[in-house]
Specification:
two-stranded antiparallel ribbon, 5-stranded parallel sheet, Trp Operon Repressor, Chain A
């Protein structure tokens, strides 16, 4: 996987190279990461990359010439790379999209700034537009880092244990089950006995139910599109019956 990041602030990506999984993957040649300074492709002596919007309005717009030239430069080293603009109007980034992006040989990530990129660049050069959430950021650099981190975890061999990516939150459609480690007792709180039993069948069943409960309480919206097994439906129906019994039989406070 080759990541090419087009940005006005390439220095912002230095922390990704200092440590962690991305650095390890680069060292193992599972991926490469380059930053391309869009300002280097400006044609005037002032290296101008933005200008006032036609029609008036606040802010500045990124000029089409340097952005297009930077994309063309990146395309020469990765012709099959998918060009992605990080922008508020893009489709919402999630785990499924990260998994699909990891199937491309490379990603060319264009970091928007100011009031955005001249729309002629969007129409001619951009393959996809991605947003990491419904809030305003000062530029596309932080979203690009989020995409790089999430996609890297999907690259075969990036994680030491394949279970790490298959069982973590959102990979199964559910939130991940609660995790515990030593000590066995912490400030009077223990660890669920089933996790100490050594019975892998019981542990797997407990984890599935715990994951289901965590999702139901924290993110019930995920259950609307999660792939439910027959056992999951049976558990949810049992909980529903219990809740109905509590609501029907329990005293009402007035």
């Amino acid at each position: 996987m080759r990541f090419s990041v087009l940005t006005l602030f390439p220095q912002m990506f230095s922390p990704l190279l200092v440590g962690g999984i991305i650095k390890r993957c680069i060292e193992r040649k599972l991926l490469s990461l380059e930053t391309i300074d869009i300002r280097e492709f400006a044609t005037d002596r002032h290296r101008t990359v933005d200008d006032r919007p036609y029609g008036g309005g606040c802010g500045m717009v990124m000029k089409p010439e340097p952005v297009a030239a930077a994309i063309q430069y990146a395309k020469r080293t990765c012709p099959e790379g998918r060009v992605v603009l990080l922008a508020p109007q893009g489709r919402l980034f999630d785990q499924d999209l990260a998994r699909r992006l990891a199937e491309y040989p490379g990603l060319i990530l264009v970091c928007g700034r100011y009031e955005g990129v001249d729309d002629r660049v969007r129409q001619r050069w951009i393959d996809d537009e991605i947003s990491i959430g419904d809030y305003v950021l000062t530029g596309g650099e932080l979203p690009a880092m989020v995409v790089i981190d999430a996609v890297t975890r999907m690259i075969p061999g990036a994680l030491g244990n394949i279970c790490s990516s298959e069982e973590e939150s959102f990979s199964t459609g559910f939130l991940e089950y609660p995790q515990y480690t030593r000590p066995r007792s912490f400030e009077g709180d223990g660890v669920p006995e089933v996790l100490l039993s050594g019975d892998h069948g019981r542990i797997e069943k407990w984890r599935r139910r715990a994951s289901l409960m965590e999702t139901l309480v924290q993110r019930p919206d995920l259950l609307m599109k999660a792939p439910l097994e027959p056992e999951d439906r049976a558990v949810l129906e049992a909980w529903q019956r219990d809740l109905e019994m509590i609501l029907d039989k329990g005293p009402t406070k007035t």
